[in-house]
Amino acid sequence: MIILGIDPGLRITGFGVIRKTGGKLSYIASGTIRTETESSLPERLKVLFLGIAEVVETYRPDCAAIEKVFVNVNPQSTLLLGQARGAAITALTVGGLPVQEYTALQLKQAVVGYGRANKAQVQEMVTRLLDLAGTPSPDAADALGMAICQAHSGSGLQTLGEIAPGLAKRGLRVRRGRLIG
Question: What is the pTM of this model?
Answer without folding.
Answer: 0.83
